[in-house]
Design brief:
Blueprint lengths: L6 H27 L4 H22 L10 H4 L5 H28 L1 H23 L6 H44 L6 H8 L7 H10 L9 H16 L1 H10 L14 H25 L10 H6 L4 H25 L11 H12 L7 H23 L6
Membrane topology: Multi-pass membrane protein
Main location: membrane
Subcellular location: Membrane
Length: 390
Amino acid sequence: MYVIESKGGAIACMLLALLFLGTWPALMTLTERRGRLPQHTYLDYTLANLLAAVIIALTLGEIGPSRPNFITQLSQENWQSMMFAMAGGIALSLGTLATQYAWAFVGLSVTEVITASITVVIGTTLNYFLDDKINRAEIIFPGIACFLIAVCFGSAVHKSNASDNKSKLQDFKSLETTSSLQTETNPETNGLAKGEAKKGTAAFLIELEKQRAIKVFGKSTIIGLMLTFFAGICISLISPAVSLATNDQWHTLKNGVPKLNVYTAYFYFSVSAFVIALILNIRFLYWPILGLPRSSFKAYLNDWNGRGLSFLAGFLCGFGDGLQFMGGQAAGYAAAGAVQALPLVSTFWGILLFGEYRRSSRKTYILLICMLFMFIVAVAVLTASSGHRK
C-alpha cells in the first residue's frame, strides 16, 4: 500500500480534501433547488461515494512496498477495528442525510459553518487525546477557539440574513399590491412574471420556492437548526472512529494481528455508510418527510435529471474523505480537523451559484467577512499543529 510519510504530503492531502469536501454540498444543493427529490440525489451520491472508496482501496491500497495491503487485510481477524470503521460510516450517513435537508431551511453556508464547528470542537478534541497528543496543544486548542468564534459569527450572519429576506418579502408584497392598482408594472414584479428575477431579490426568493423540491416558506428555521446540530454531532464522531480503527488505541486486536491500514478502514467505513443510506432513502421514497412528494424505486431509476451532478458530488465527497484520512494518519487526526473549514469553499459556491447574501444589508456583509476571516485563521492554526505519527 502507498503510505504518506512526510508532513508536507499530509498537509497537501488535507488542503485538497478541503476543496473537495467544500464543493460536493454545493452540487447537491443545486440539484434540490432545480426540483430533484433529495432521496433520488442521495441514492446516487452514496453509490458514487462507495465507488470512490473501492477505487482508492484497489489502487493506493495495493501499490507500494508497505504491508499488509488492502486485499490481504480483508481475510484477517480484525473485526474489532472493522466495527469502529463501520460505526464511523453510520455516523457519516446519518450526518450527511441530516445536512441535506438542513441546507434547504438555513442555507448552505450557515449549515456548513455550524456542522463544521461542532465537528472541530468535539472531533478534534477527541482525536487529540486518542492520538496520544502528537499534535501541539498550545496551537491546536487556540485553533478550536477560532472555530467557536466563527460559529458565533455564522449564527449572527444567519439571523441577519433571515431578517433581510423577511424585509424583502414584506416590501415585495407592498410593491405587488401597488402594481395591481396601477397601469405601470414594477420591474421586480415583472421579473417574477417572466421568470427573470435577479438573485437576492424577493422575486428571486419566491421563484426559487416554486421550483425547489423542499418547500420552506412558512416553516420554522428551528427545524433546519435542529437538523444541523444533529448532523454536527454525528459528523464529529467520524474521524475518531476511523482513528480507532486504524491505530487501535484501545488495544482490541489480538496479539500479532496487524492494525487496519487507512484504505481498508475507509472501505469498511464506506460500505456501512452505503447500506444505511440505502435503507433510509428507500424508506423515504415511499414514506417521505418534510412534506416531500411520494416516489418509488422505479421513479428513482428513471430520474436522470441532475444524476450527473449527484454522482460528481458523491465522488468528490468520497475522495475528499479518503484524502482527509490519509493526511490524518500521517500528521494526526486532530490536525486533519483543518478540513472542517470547508465553509470557506461552500460559502464561495453559495454566493456564486445560489446568490446567497446578494442584496443583503451592510451588517450581514460585515458579519460574513468576519466569519470567513476566522475560518482562514482556524485553518492556518490547525494546519500548523500537525505532528508526525511514528
